[in-house]
Write a structure and sequence with these properties.
23% strand; Ribosomal Protein S5, domain 2; 359 residues; 8-stranded mixed sheet; binds (3R)-3-hydroxy-3-methyl-5-(phosphonooxy)pentanoic acid
Length: 359
């Protein structure tokens, strides 16, 4: 499938004005996307759990206009956020070819997150996918021809990717693959697809408690981070390793082998951070409390035989992953031992979910 699949058809019955709302969740990568080329194309395959409780809700108001160019305003929790607008403008530039109506309307984008803006949880995946879904919904209702759900989901994911790579994994759930892989039929660099193989019941409703270690602005933006992979001495080995971990995970998802799952997921998190430590310039994104939490998780696992593990994004917060049947024990472990290392003791309980929904 090529980009041309997503070029628009003809529109009919376009209204003067209206509005549309979508809720889209965040996602957490098990095999990480880190390094890109071209326009938001991944250097390796990644796979993620779509989340449920961490989401963005976006309402898009649209009104026909006569003037040329884009016209939009962005509001976060009711307040104008001019700081977001350059990013949206770049997003619209990338989308224009696929959604020519972007220049025909003025837009008011009202957005809010279920998690605090200052939490250090990236809102780009949920935010960009929610906006892409609103736009896609307009295209669907104005298209002359009938649109299949499959095309809707693929194009929404394709558009979301052009806003933020990982956003393409937030349309559907609970396990989404992005990046062409020889062992996974229909996988694509252009959009996320549902993980197509057998998944053991151990992975149903998998839990992710996000420990908010550092709520500040990201030390390194993901654009800069991906850029650092360009001349990175270990880049090729890293991309190979990620693609090999995908192959290992296929067996693990089938067999339900949680020890092997833990090994892959924790290794992936540490590889991501190792890439940041060995790039030029170099960064340490973990904080002392991140390491303290990791050590406590390892100790707890050794002492109890629990299958809890961690993963990290490109920041100091820790995602604590565990099977649903350990929810009660691990929650009390988090409250009694890990919460003390979080800013104001804060964490968010989440779990794997089914993807975005229209509101
Ligand atoms: O979608 P971006 O460009 O913000 O990149 C996200 C990269 C990681 O979150 C660190 C890993 C991933 O696969 O989600």
């Amino acid at each position: 499938m090529s980009e041309a699949t997503f070029l628009p058809g003809t529109y009919s019955n376009q209204p003067q004005s209206g509005r549309i709302s979508w809720r889209s969740p965040s996602n957490i990568a098990l095999v990480k996307y880190w390094g890109k080329h071209g326009v938001q194309l991944p250097k390796n395959t990644s796979v993620s759990f779509t989340l449920s409780n961490c989401f963005t809700e976006t309402t898009l108001h649209y009104k026909k206009k006569e003037t040329a160019g884009y016209n939009f305003e962005v509001y976060l929790d009711g307040n104008r956020e001019e700081g977001f607008e350059p990013k949206i403008s770049q997003f619209f530039d990338r989308l224009q070819k696929y959604l020519p109506f972007l220049e025909q309307y003025s837009f008011r984008i009202e957005t809010s997150n279920s998690f605090p803006h200052s939490s250090g949880i990236a809102s780009s995946a949920s935010g960009m996918s929610a906006l892409a879904l609103c736009l896609m919904d307009l295209e669907r209702s104005w298209s002359g021809a009938e649109m299949t759900d499959d095309h809707f989901d693929k194009k929404a994911s394709f558009l979301a990717r052009l806003g933020s790579g990982s956003a393409c994994r937030s349309i559907d759930g609970p396990l989404i693959v992005w990046g062409e892989h020889p062992e996974i039929d229909n996988s694509s660099d252009l959009f996320g697809t549902k993980y197509p193989f057998e998944v053991h019941s151990n992975f149903m409703n998998y839990r992710d408690t996000i420990l908010l270690v550092d709520k500040g602005e990201k030390q390194v933006s993901s654009t800069v981070g991906h850029g650092l992979m360009k001349d990175h001495p270990y880049a090729e080995q890293r991309f190979e390793q990620a693609n090999a971990n995908i192959v290992r995970l296929i067996d693990v998802f089938k067999s339900g082998d949680l020890d092997a799952f833990i090994e892959i997921v924790e290794s992936e998190a540490l590889q991501l951070h190792a890439m940041m430590m060995t790039s030029l310039p170099y960064f340490i994104l973990m904080k002392p409390n991140t390491l303290e939490i990791i050590n406590r998780i390892w100790k707890y696992r050794n002492e109890t035989g629990s299958k809890v593990c961690f993963t990290l994004d490109a920041g100091a917060n820790v995602h604590v992953l565990y099977p649903a049947n350990e929810a009660a024990e691990v929650s009390s472990f988090i409250e009694s031992e890990l919460a003390q290392f979080c800013k104001n003791g804060s964490f968010i309980h989440d779990l794997a979910g089914i993807g975005a929904q229209s509101l």
